UniProtKB/TrEMBL annotation:
Protein keywords: Membrane, Transmembrane, Transmembrane helix
Domain of life: Bacteria
Lineage: Bacteria, Pseudomonadati, Pseudomonadota, Betaproteobacteria, Burkholderiales
Regions crossing the membrane: 313-340
E.C. number: 2.7.7.65
A Pfam family annotated for this UniProt entry: GGDEF
Recorded catalytic activity of this chain's protein: 2 GTP = 3',3'-c-di-GMP + 2 diphosphate
Keyword flag Transmembrane helix: yes
Biased composition (Basic and acidic residues): 506-519, 530-540
PROSITE patterns per record: GGDEF (PS50887)
Protein name per UniProt: diguanylate cyclase
Listed SMART domains: GGDEF (SM00267)
GO biological process: cell adhesion involved in single-species biofilm formation; negative regulation of bacterial-type flagellum-dependent cell motility
CDD domains: GGDEF
Amino acid sequence: MRSSVRMVTLGVAFAWLALVASLGWWMSQKIVASELDRLAASAEYEAKTTARIMDRLFTEMVSVANMVARQGLVIQLATRYRTDPPDLAELTRQQRAAQFTQDPLVRKVGDFMNELSGDLRYARIYMNNMSDDTVTASNWAESDSIVGMIYSGRPYLVDALREGNGHSFGIARLNKTPSYFVASRIESEDDQPLGSVTVKFDAPDIVPYLSGSHIALILDRQGRVTTTSSAPFMLRNASALLPPGSAPAGARTNALDSDEQPGAPLDARAVTGSDQWIIDGKPYLLRHEPLSNTQYQLITLASLDHLPAMRRLHLGLAGLVASVGLLFILLCGHVIGLMVERRQDEWYAANHDALTNLPNRRNVLCHLEQLFAQAKKTQQWVVVAFVDLDGFKAINDSYGHEVGDQFLVEVGRRLTMGLRQSDMLGRLGGDEFVVIGLIDPPSPADQDQALEAMRSRLAPLLIGRYAFSECCLDYPGASFGIVSVDPSISSTQTVLREADLRMYADKQARRTSRRDSAKGDAACETGELPGHDPRMPLPT
């Protein structure tokens, strides 16, 4: 039973570990999936919100450029300096700026642009004529003035003169700042182009509009990151993150400088079957949102770097729960094992003889009841053999109770050697033993033969020398009462009573035999024969 408890404890322990492992894995998957859903919803919300902000910002830039281009003073100035005279191209920028700024109208329009750019926090507002020369600018009075700077071939200026509006992103020539450029055409009363007004917004000034819990990337048509809330992504090429067809091949460059490149590409690969990406070795959840009426697109990246730590936390918690549960199971198993062992000891003490360790009277009677029930089912007979040790009191009196106890133990051991596999040997008490078992139903002629066979198997085992540390003795044998009964017509009490009667009959017969044998021995010693009159002479 103790080993069974140990096996059950191990089974429960393994089942507990399997349960915690499977349940922990399932719960971790559910929590991680819930976190992914939360991140996806958050990224979706931030993408739409940021897209609306950026759409409004770019719309505002276009509106400001359009508003300035339609100012009367601006149109008047553009009409005055629609193109540069031939000799102006030979001058330096500073010389051209000096000529322009001598005109009070140039300064007045420049001051207007300066106030407007300061109010709206634009980097610069400036006006170019049809010769791409900067006639005035919001910084006309400063040392880094761009008045007189010729911006030939700039895409946003070309688009503005041709289509009315132009957009572009690039690195500013003077201060090397990544900037957005929005230009609007200046038109005469008869809709003839006179030049353009450009609003310049530096990319670093847009970053506060991208503040949020996730990374925001603004990409141009080349897929270059023009503005981002995470510095490592700035000016990198993220075209791999764009949906197919959103960055058309062959789109013309928007660079302000001819040597400007699309940017170092990101190491990006999509995770199959999900909207997750591995970018530069880190996992992200991606949301894409095109910006309205612009060439730019917005990508929102939700970092998944915390998910491995979350899974490790789940693993640690599962391990802690598994350890505590396992400790509890093992302790319970140990306690139950001790209880079972104690109950076993109590049951063994209640059902076994303390001296010989053989089943006691209670155990024998209980087993006999079971044999009767089994015999009725299997159509067998029950056999009972009572064994009474002749002369046991004399052994106790002659050699002491310690030798008597050793003798009883040895008798039990010897009788055990003669048992069949289905037999049970028990001690009823004192010097009485009993053997019970099942036999096949004997025929009337063979019934005594079956009983004699059992006697022949057991009785000789008790006859002979018994050697103990204190003494040796020769034992002549015990009395046997052997009975076999049909369980369907008999009972346990009946078979025990009959076996007991036969044992006493055998004991009486053995006593008579020993008494006659003793008389015969005495007659031999005196010269008499049994049944002979001593007064008559013995035959010669």
